[in-house]
User: Fold this.
Amino acid sequence: MEAPQSRLSYSAIARYAEQIASENDVFDERGNVDVYELLRKLGGEIEIDDRAESLDVRENGDFTVFLPTHTSRLRDRFTIAHELGHYFLHFRAPDQNLIGERTSTFTRLGRNIPETQANVFASNLLMPAAQFKTTFCRLEQDLVSVAEHFEVSYPAAKVRAEFLGLPT
Ligand SMILES: [Zn+2]
Assistant:
């Protein structure tokens, strides 16, 4: 079955991700979002499993993110942010913001609109535009250091910089 899509624009998804981070006040000492803390506050659990990275929602405030056994901490961080994107955009969303049937199970199935929307949510949660631009300048456009600062992979930081029109 096709996953539902959000009607929100990418910039609305960006604002939504930043709003969720600040409402839940889950910033670490560097100012980054602690996705484990956010997940816990929202009623989520993590299971390490051999299945694909996925999200299973039982109801509002009760869900599990499945992480595979063999990944890195940075990838897990992005995956959790991505699955939270599905939770907010494709499960908890009010009817008028949804296209398609509401579902409660999400597995990464290649590239499609819901996956892109969850990635947009994740990159804005982990690398908010304003902070990203400031840090990019402060660290003299060194993407390795920028990725370290935001605790994301180098490719994730590079995609973010390109999206924001920064020189890479
Ligand atoms: Zn997904």
